[in-house]
Amino acid sequence: MSFFKFCPSCASTHFTFPDNRRFFCEDCGFTYYHNIAAAVALVFTFEDKVLFTVRNVDPDKGKWDLPGGFIDPNETAEEAACREIREELGLNLQPSDLKYVTTSPNNYLYKNVPYRTMDIFYECALPSNGINVAAEDEIQELIWVKRSEIDLEKIGFVSIRKVIGEKYLK
Ligand SMILES: [Zn+2]
User: Cα(14) to centroid of ligand 1, in Å?
Assistant: First the structure.
């Protein structure tokens, strides 16, 4: 099933949209690529602990997540990471504070539209664990979890579960 019911250009129902990747209208030729979106995720560490956010919004409300979000048009990944951290945690970081970790693909279902993302992971070691939520609408709480006590089942997104499991779980 497609999440489009009609061609956005001519309202025809005669279209193909295999794997929700390339929408093609057989009547008017309208073509739309539902490309992947780029996003950033931040792994904050302090001593032997990793910082998780608890999501306050769907998808995956109540699950563990990492700070971060979608990259805006014309932003670098590092600029997006610094902006998201300022918005979510009120912390002012510089791009040079971020250490690149890896990338991992993710699925993000929002209001019945299945987005596919490429999540870019950065790490940042903090000098203290005194960090607070600035965006209470998005984040229920922050939790510092020892690497040996990370419960992958509590992590919502597949990309974050994979990277945390491979690189941070002890
Ligand atoms: Zn059309």
Answer: 8
CA of 86 to the centre of ligand 1 (A): 42
Number of domains in the chain: 2
pLDDT tens-digit series, residues 89-145: 999 999 999 999 999 999 999 888 999 999 999 999 999 888 888 888 889 999 999
Q: Residue count of the chain, please give it.
A: 170
pLDDT tens digits, 8-52: 999 999 999 999 999 999 999 999 999 999 999 999 999 999 999
| DSSP strand pairing (113-125 vs 31-33) | unpaired
CA atoms within 13 A on the CB side of 110: 10
**Distance in angstroms (rounded) separating the CA atoms of residues 105 and 127:** 30
Q: Is 7 found in the same domain as 44?
A: no
> Which domain, by its residues, includes 5?
1-35
CA distance 11 to 78: 40
Q: By C-alpha distance, which of 95, 77, 93 is closest to 85?
A: 93
Gap from CA of 23 to ligand 1 centroid (Å): 10
Task: Output phi, psi for 93, to 5 deg.
Answer: -110, 155
